[in-house]
């Protein structure tokens, strides 16, 4: 085993410290400083800070030239008030590590402790700490940063803990691991009128009433058949809370979800077409905004083969598992590297991700770290 009991005690204590100091997407300044401080003791060969905002890359060189293998974790927490009662519960009102990114960072920290003791023989091992995963903005900002060239990987691996799956059991599959998704805000603008004479204005009420079921009707297919799409209405607003005014303004927020990026493009076009047709019919102006844009995360077969060999070498039970409807801001790493993500079971009865009483199981830290280390050394020696 590459970790001593004191290593795991230190990483566990650090994970709990991170849990108590959650920072939401784009605001992970203290968390990034914690990463740099903790891993400075491993004497890395390079550290790149401020990647895509608050991102960090910690780099370990081998003695010989070779490829770069990156392991990626997330820095951000969620704007969710924690209701659980661990001694290390969140100290920041309305914020909490309810997705386990504190645990993912701890897994990378354990990998860093091992690499500090034993460098790869060749190439580079890079620990990537990504900001703003929860909004879908972090990976794009990181990759677009000119400093990213100093950490650009040939292979990128990642994980996510998964409640509902037996603790320590891994799901890993080739192809789509997480669906694409994005938020679409549709804004209608008309003209106010007295509520007694609505015909003298232009109200968005009829357009909104007609396209809500039409948008929901864009949902079709299944994950099993590979043509899954889903449109979920998340917010609707018409006018102001007054009885005397026929409103001029209205908006719909809809989350679009698809199994593929091509399917997402088609779904977005269909949703916008429905809204435009309703606006034209009722004489309304229309505008669109895109938010929380996540690409599909698609596992490359070569990266899956690498992880599968690591799982088998470490004796970690695994199966193909499912494609996740939920999105994950990892898909863009496939643009710059061979990539794959696996899901590490947090326990069948563990609180679900984003539940207010969720807490990362510390027993998963050595399991995840051993898998990643095995994969790193398989490529880099």
From TrEMBL:
<dbReference type="GO" id="GO:0016787">
    <property type="term" value="F:hydrolase activity"/>
</dbReference>
<keyword id="KW-0479">Metal-binding</keyword>
<dbReference type="Pfam" id="PF01546">
    <property type="entry name" value="Peptidase_M20"/>
</dbReference>
<keyword id="KW-0378">Hydrolase</keyword>
<feature type="binding site">
    <location>
        <position position="354"/>
    </location>
    <ligand>
        <name>Mn(2+)</name>
    </ligand>
</feature>
<dbReference type="InterPro" id="IPR036264">
    <property type="entry name" value="Bact_exopeptidase_dim_dom"/>
</dbReference>
<feature type="binding site">
    <location>
        <position position="101"/>
    </location>
    <ligand>
        <name>Mn(2+)</name>
    </ligand>
</feature>
<feature type="binding site">
    <location>
        <position position="134"/>
    </location>
    <ligand>
        <name>Mn(2+)</name>
    </ligand>
</feature>
<keyword id="KW-0464">Manganese</keyword>
<dbReference type="GO" id="GO:0046872">
    <property type="term" value="F:metal ion binding"/>
</dbReference>
<dbReference type="InterPro" id="IPR017439">
    <property type="entry name" value="Amidohydrolase"/>
</dbReference>
<dbReference type="InterPro" id="IPR002933">
    <property type="entry name" value="Peptidase_M20"/>
</dbReference>
<feature type="binding site">
    <location>
        <position position="160"/>
    </location>
    <ligand>
        <name>Mn(2+)</name>
    </ligand>
</feature>
<feature type="binding site">
    <location>
        <position position="99"/>
    </location>
    <ligand>
        <name>Mn(2+)</name>
    </ligand>
</feature>
<protein>
    <submittedName>
        <fullName>Amidohydrolase</fullName>
    </submittedName>
</protein>
């Amino acid at each position: 085993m590459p970790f001593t009991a004191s290593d795991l005690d230190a990483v566990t204590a650090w994970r709990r410290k991170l849990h108590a100091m959650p920072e939401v997407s784009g605001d992970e300044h203290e968390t990034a400083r914690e990463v740099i401080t903790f891993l400075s003791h491993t004497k890395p060969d390079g550290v790149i800070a401020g990647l895509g905002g608050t991102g960090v890359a910690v780099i370990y060189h081998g003695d010989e030239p070779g490829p770069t293998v990156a392991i990626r974790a997330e820095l951000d927490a969620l704007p969710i008030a924690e209701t659980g009662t661990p001694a290390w519960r969140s100290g920041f009102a309305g914020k909490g590590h309810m997705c386990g990114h504190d645990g993912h960072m701890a897994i990378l920290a354990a990998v860093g402790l091992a690499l500090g003791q034993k460098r790869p023989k060749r190439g580079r091992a890079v620990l990537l700490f990504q900001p703003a995963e929860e909004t879908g903005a972090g990976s794009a900002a990181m990759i677009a940063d000119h400093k990213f060239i100093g950490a650009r990987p040939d292979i990128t691996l990642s994980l996510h803990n998964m409640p509902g799956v037996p603790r320590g059991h891994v799901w890993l599959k080739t192809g789509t691991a997480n669906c694409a998704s994005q938020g679409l805000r549709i804004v209608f603008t008309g003209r106010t009128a007295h509520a007694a004479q609505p015909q003298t204005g232009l109200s968005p009420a009829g357009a909104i009433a007609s396209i809500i079921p039409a948008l929901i009707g864009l949902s079709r297919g299944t994950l099993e058949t590979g043509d899954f799409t889903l449109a979920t209405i998340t917010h609707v607003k018409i006018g102001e809370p007054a009885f005397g005014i026929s409103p001029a303004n209205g908006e719909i927020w809809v989350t679009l979800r698809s199994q593929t990026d091509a399917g997402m493009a088609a779904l977005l076009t269909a949703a916008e077409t429905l809204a435009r047709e309703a606006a034209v019919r009722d004489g309304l102006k229309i505008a669109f905004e895109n938010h929380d844009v996540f690409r599909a995360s698609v596992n490359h077969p070569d990266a899956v083969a690498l992880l599968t060999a690591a799982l088998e070498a470490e004796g970690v039970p695994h199966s193909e598992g499912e494609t996740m409807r939920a999105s994950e801001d990892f898909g863009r790493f496939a643009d710059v590297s061979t990539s794959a993500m696996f899901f590490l079971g947090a326990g069948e009865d563990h609180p679900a991700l984003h539940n207010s009483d969720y807490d990362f199981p510390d027993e998963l830290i050595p399991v995840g770290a051993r898998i990643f280390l095995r994969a790193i050394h398989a490529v880099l020696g």
